[in-house]
Amino acid sequence: MSRDSTRRRKVYEGKAKVLFEGPEPGTLIQYFKDDATAFNNQKQGVITGKGVLNNRISEFLMERLASIGIPTHFVRRLNMREQLVREVEIIPIEVVIRNVVAGSLAKRFGIEEGEALPRSIVEYYYKSDELEDPLVTEEHIAAFAWASYQEIDEMLNLALRINDYLSGLFMGAGLRLIDFKVEFGRHWDEDEMQIILADEISPDSCRLWDVLTNEKLDKDRFRRDLGRVEEGYQEVARRLGILPDAGPRDLKGPEAVQ
Ligand code: TMP
Questions:
Q1: Got the DSSP string for 84-108?
Q2: Is 56 a domain residue?
């Protein structure tokens, strides 16, 4: 049961989510907002129903990833907009994996969007609003002690496994996973530290194009004013079989269900 969100302690508020203190030590409640920003806060808006859909989509994807042995912060969904997660110390690095040229990669090198890459590219960005999330190398990450080489290696391996699995899962739903961003955190169990997947995986953090038409079904609809923004998120949820009001019978898999 969720408690009154005005009475519990807010631990952190980001652009798209709020973290509240959880019911037990070592847990947090992750609340998904409808707010959307792009280009480091220069563009702001509301995507009605996004929080509800991202809560469900991230739940679905994190559970599937857990089933293949990826450690994640996800514990369980609490209600339409909230999920219980394990508390972690977030590593201040955005790990981006790209399968197809798009977004800032296309811009940086003047390449047309849509060109398949001969191999997946991994990039690291330092999480800093003031610095506008600069692209960094492993050298910077280790030298500034944002993460050790061993932790970088762990994040890289997990991100590549996540990419392989999610590429197949989305393909089964008629979607191409163009690129995505993940974040990791340090989780302590007794004295053991483990790097686990944190944050969210949703159309806010992935580019997803229709396999046949290349139609964009992700946050680029908002970033680029393509219209039908809500519909993009709904379509991803629908294809994964997880519309917000869907019952258990509708949770069976990546087929189009109404
Ligand atoms: P980019 O092409 O703008 O660098 O984005 C690469 C991927 O990372 C894309 O799927 C969107 C995602 N992303 C985020 O989740 N948060 C961000 O702040 C940025 C810049 C990108």
A1: EEE--EE-SEEEEEEEE--HHHHHH
A2: yes
